[in-house]
Design brief:
By secondary structure, this protein is mainly beta. 4% of the residues lie in helices and 62% in strands.
Amino acid sequence: TGLIGYQSINEEWVGNMGLHSQNFFGGGRELSVNYSNDGGDKIKFGISYTDILFPWLIPTLSYNWTNRETYYTEQNLDLSLTYPYMAMPPSLELGYRSIRPDSSGLYRRGIPQSDEIKLGLGMAIDRLSVMNKGFAWDISVQALRITRSRIQEAGIEESPDEIGANLEHSFKVAYPVGITVFWLENRIVGRWREVYTQEDLIPLGGATSLRGYNEDFFWGDKVILNRLEVRLPVWREKSHLFIFGDCGLSLIHISEPT
């Protein structure tokens, strides 16, 4: 799937492309590849692979790369190990994140070079049926060991090393009434640090979050997003017309809510 366009003003190709296989090489393996370019300052690439090494262990390995022009380049390498034989399968999460600012991000925006080691636990349950009935819920809590360098160049006076935490929670429910489907989604994302810089904040806005706003229009260290859709089928259960309403809240611990 994807959408590609050309901006004559910037003279560049923009859009996004995605590839997903639910039975890659058989045996229940999954492969996802995604690429997006918003035509502004952000390019993203991601790849994720799920295998079944043992009946009691499902590993998922993912790599995500993001480049924000005049800010930084971010890389994430994550491994999730899931035990499937429970009503809410638990997962052990291991990961590494690196931030490498460019000269503008370092000197003008105060973004230091940083490395994070992530260790967390997650739980999830999925009872959605082709997104037309049921619910899904997942939560992830991570502890972080953050090491920063080039902090004097970034104008940061605090300690270069610290402990942090991440929290992600989402809930989705689909409720059919006749041929109409009501879809409700809630997301809560939070990050806790002693020192917050631009790359630590959570973006809000765009087609996959708060629709009606530009990509990453809002920023905060705590974000809440609610999405409501009323879907009407167009062709079987695969295509829909829908009316939607989104509302979100972003909070920054050093300022007023936005």
